[in-house]
Amino acid sequence: MTIDINILDHSVLASLQGRLDTAASTQFATDMQPLLDHADKPIVLDCSALEFISSSGLRLFLTLRKASLAHGGKVTVRNLNPEIKQVFTITGFTTLFEFED
Amino acid sequence: MPYELDFHCQMILDEYRDLLPVYEIMRDVVVDRLHCVLEENNISVTGLESRIKTEASLAGKLELKGHKYASITDLTDIVGVRVIAFYNEDVDKISAMAENLFEVDWGNSVDKRKMHDLDSFGYNSLHYICKIPKSLYFNPQKPEVNEIRFELQMRTTLQHMWASMYHDTGYKSGVEVPIEHLRTLNRLAGMLELADDEFGRIRTTINDYRRQVNALVASGNFNDVKLDGDSFKSYLNLRPFDKLNQRIAAINQAEIQPASAMPYLAIFRKMGFKTLGDIELCLKNHSEGAYQLAVHQLGLTDLDIISSTLALQNLCIVHILQNGGGTPGLKWLLDTLYSPSDSNLVMAQQIFDQASKLSFMSKTQSR
Questions:
Q1: Do B15 and B152 fall into the same domain?
Q2: Do the chains contact at B338 and A54, CB–CB below 8 Å?
């Protein structure tokens, strides 16, 4: 599981790649720290190369959302593949984030 | 700075210079106390302004009518504070608070809102001349803080706007303004007075409506309550979807993540729901189907976190399917929840296929 973070002037873009399962979550929580540090900017998570997400992964997404909301910002989830979109749908996570294709 | 002042006026100006630190304390005390009481009483204002009259402005006043004042303490507007409220009723409340906070010099205070004849309109504002009581602030080194008077102006935003325009265009401009323009300004004052009354009436009407809605929701007369932002919010306070969410969460012993249900207001409206009774009926008729769907979708996964909007989402899915909305209806729902996308059609088909195997669909298979 890798995350590539680009801090831009007016937003932060993070590209996620691989499987965000329970085993990968601990490392991901550390790797996403720059996103939390820049939570005052809108955060965009590009998930086009994300292959899997577990409950632990969803909780990390929520951590980002909480930090962003605390600064009046938002988290946009972009390019979910059908399998991961199904996870977001069956858990009702559809209204917690902005979504883009 | 050279002013054309006689000896008496020059003495007053010297007094002013000596008292500047006292004026600053007075201004800070008054503004601070007003801030506190406004906050304590939940009164929003559009402005809380303060100023200490400048030396140049005072000198100008003394040049014109310095003989009227025996000493600097006869000038009651060296420290001026202005509260600009949204509504006339709030101006009255703020004045009551000021009466409690400060010692009001009633002989010199004036309610300019009540000074107009029946057929005249113009400057509207409530002006109090006050002193700071020792109970509010006392420093033996600065007894003048409790002796010098200050001016407190209270008015509505529209009254303030009119006064500012009048000040800018006519009064104090140094040029005599043609009478027809002054007449127009006064006509505008009349119009703004009406607007102030109307804003107050609208606020009262809205608050009455909210109280009625809350009472109807609390009494359970949902069919009588039109579905709108206020009524939906009141309804959500009853936590009507908790039971279904808890039942769904129990499938995987999942944690329920709180989320706002307000996005579903627009969805319910687009589904044709007119009253809270329609939502209640949906909850009554479709809870079992919504639960069955969740068992089918979540039961084969180890996902142990759900959003508190999952119950609403599944209720909408079942409602759409039971009313013959089929895959296009589900795609519409997904397009609304996510952004519109072709991939939502694939998911809509998946949900339709999953739901087709469930008992609640047995009556709607043929649609």
A1: yes
A2: no
Query: Does some domain include residue B190?
Result: no
Q: Could you tell me if B118 and B248 lie in one domain?
A: no
- Quote the pLDDT of residue B121: 66
Q: Do B150 and B264 reside in the same domain of the chain?
A: no
What number is the average pLDDT over the span A26-32? 94
Q: In terms of domains, do B107 and B244 share one?
A: no
Q: Does B292 touch chain A (CB under 8 A)?
A: no
Three-state DSSP at B245 gives helix
Q: What is the mean pLDDT of chain B?
A: 90
Q: Does B260 touch chain A (CB under 8 A)?
A: yes
The answer as to whether B121 is a domain residue is: yes
In order of B103, B238, B328, the CA distances from B225 in angstroms are 49, 14, 30
Percent of chain B with pLDDT over 70: 94
Round the average pLDDT of chain A to a whole number and report it: 94
Query: Is the per-residue pLDDT at B53 higher than 50?
Result: yes
Burial class of residue B1 in the structure, from the number of CB atoms within 10 Å of its CB (0-12 exposed, 13-18 middle, 19+ buried):
exposed
Please indicate, yes or no, whether residues B153 and B227 belong to a single structural domain of this protein.
no
B199-240 confidence digits (pLDDT tens) = 999 999 888 888 888 888 888 889 989 999 999 998 998 899
CB pair distance less than 8 Å for A90 and B341? no
* Domain span holding position B339: 223-361
**B294: Cβ contacts below 8 Å, ≥ 6 apart:** A90, B248, B251, B310, B314
| Cross-strand partners of A52 | A19
Last residue of a domain, one of B128, B157, B186: B157
Is residue B2 situated within a structural domain?
Answer: no
Average the pLDDT over B151-175 and give the result. Answer: 82
Are the beta carbons of B350 and A92 separated by less than 8 Å?
no
Domains identified in chain B, total number? 2
What pTM, to 2 d.p., does this model score?
Answer: 0.65
Candidates A91, A97, A99, partner chain B, best to mutate (most B CBs within 10 A)? A91
> In this structure, is residue B176 part of a structural domain?
no
Q: What ipTM goes with this model?
A: 0.93
Neighbours of B62 (CB within 10 A): 24
Q: Which of B157, B177, B193 is the last residue of a domain?
A: B157
Q: Which amino acid is at A46?
A: D
Secondary structure of residue B156 in the 3-state scheme: strand
All structural domains of chain A: 2-100 (3.30.750.24)
| Average pLDDT of the residues in B118-126 | 72
Same domain as B233, residue B130: no
B-chain CB neighbours of A75 within 8 Å are none
Q: Which two tokens stand for residue A24?
A: 């990968």
Q: What is the pLDDT of residue B306?
A: 97
